[in-house]
Design goal:
alpha/beta; Rossmann fold; 9 helices; single chain
């Protein structure tokens, strides 16, 4: 099983460190791990450092992967730039074949069809990317990321352009996909209730530094919400065993 651990990780912009000394527990495949924090906390910078796009001190320890790190790990940035003249199907097909020649098997075509259907964008398959809404393009980017079957997947706010219903649908799909494939997924989220519901672990970043990391229900607490997000809130558990954050509006 693939595992990932960060040891004293920092990310350098120019002569300074934008992210500094991030060390985490060992995260394992088959689970989603949320990366949360206020705006400009350093989440995207951390993802780029883990993906090898930025330099800095520390170590990314990847073990148990079947492939070399450059093939095992994939990064889905928050802002994706796609060729607007390609159709949805062409863009996902190109993602499959990147670096693997141009011969396309029936199995690969079937997998593309299955992913587009699972993300509910099969009806967009032959529309040009330039004709799509921001949310639709985001779903296509998710399809491009998962169709390559990475062992570790870094997703930087992949649901930010989606409505609430589609956010829940996509996160449930990613949760099941991770479990079925044994994929280790790190996913930057703003909705902390989503982190509680779908993510086994949570990493909290603030001002470029690690605040805490561990099981989501141990990390997302009223004390953390007060310290990092400056809100008074409580965590309530519903009858299905799920936890929800209830903000105290009177404590302004």
């Amino acid at each position: 099983m693939v595992t990932l651990q960060l040891k004293g990780l920092g990310a350098r912009y120019g002569s300074g460190l934008a992210v500094e000394d991030v060390s985490t527990p060992v995260f394992k495949g088959g689970e989603l791990t949320a990366v949360i924090g206020p705006n400009a906390a350093g989440k995207s910078t951390l993802f780029k450092r883990v993906a090898g796009l930025l330099k800095g001190p520390g170590e990314v320890v990847l073990e148990g992967a079947r492939n070399e790190p450059r093939d095992a790990l994939r990064y889905m940035p928050q802002d994706t730039h796609a060729n607007a003249v390609l159709t949805v199907y062409e863009s996902v097909l190109l993602a499959v074949k990147q670096g693997h020649g141009w011969r396309v098997s029936d199995r690969e075509l079937a997998e593309i069809d299955q992913i587009l259907e699972a993300l509910q964008i099969a009806d967009l398959a032959f529309r040009n990317l330039g004709e799509l809404s921001g949310g639709q393009r985001q779903l296509v980017s998710i399809a491009q990321a998962i169709v390559r079957k990475p062992e570790v997947l870094l997703m930087d706010e992949p649901t930010s352009a989606l409505d609430l219903y589609r956010q829940v649908e996509v996160l449930a799909f990613m949760q099941e996909l991770a479990r079925r494939r044994g994929t280790l997924v790190l996913i930057a989220l703003h909705d902390l209730n989503h982190a509680l519901r779908f993510c086994h672990n949570t990493v909290v970043i603030s001002s470029g530094r690690l605040v805490s990391a561990g099981p989501s229900r141990q990390v997302i607490t009223p004390e953390m919400l007060r310290e990092i997000y400056r809100v008074d809130a409580r965590i309530e558990q519903c009858s299905r065993g799920e936890s929800h954050i209830i903000i105290d509006r009177s404590a302004a």
